[in-house]
Amino acid sequence: MQRDSNSRCVAVSQRHSKGLLIIGSFKLLKALLFIFLGIGALHFIKADLSETIHRIVVANNFDAESRFVSMVLEKADAIDDHRLRIVSVGSFAYATVAVVEGVGLLMELTWASYLTLILSISFLPWELYEIIRDPALWRLMVLAINLGIVAYLLWFLKMEKRARARRAEAKAVC
Fold first, then answer.
1. Which of 16, 24, 150, 171 gives 106 a disulfide partner, CB atoms 3.0 to 4.6 angstroms apart?
2. Cα(2)–Cα(163) distance, integer angstroms
3. Where exactly are the structural domains of the chain?
4. What's this model's pTM, rounded to 2 decimal places?
5. For 60-76, how does the pLDDT look when each residue is reduced to its tens digit (9 = 90+)?
6. How far is 17 from 96, CA to CA, in rounded Å?
7. Which residues contact 9 (CB under 8 A, 6 or more apart)?
C-alpha cells in the first residue's frame, strides 16, 4: 500500500522474480530428467541390459573389446531387477519433490523457496565429499549451481522479508 497524490491508499504491484523463474524451470527440467530415468529403469526390468548395451556398442561402431565397454558391460551385469525397481522408485520420488519445488517457485510461494533452500543446503556436504573423493569438472559445476541457488534464495528471502515488513508498515499507516 502506498499513498497517491490525493492521499488515498493504493496497492503497489509486485515484480516477479526472474531468479525464481530460472530456478523453478531448472527444477522442472531436472524432474523431467528423473522421470525419464525412472521410466528407463522400469523399461529394463525383465530385459537383458548387457545385450542392449552390446547392440548400442555395435550400432555405433565402438570398439567392443575396449576397457571402457568391458567395464560398462560388467557393471550392467551387476544390475538386477530389484536394483532397477529401487532406481525407478527413487527417481520418481525425487522427480515428485523437484516438481513440487519447481511449481512452487514458479508460483513464487515462500514455502517453496524455503523448501528449495533447505534441500539445496542438505546436498552441499555430499557434493563436497564427492569432489574431495573424486574431483571432476562436472561435480564442481553441480556444486557451483547449488551454491548459486543457495546464495540467491538467501538473498531473495531476505528481500522478501523486508518487503513484507514495508507492506505491513504501509498498511498500518493507511
1. 24
2. 13
3. 17-44+79-173
4. 0.79
5. 888 878 888 888 888 88
6. 23
7. 1, 2, 3, 170, 174
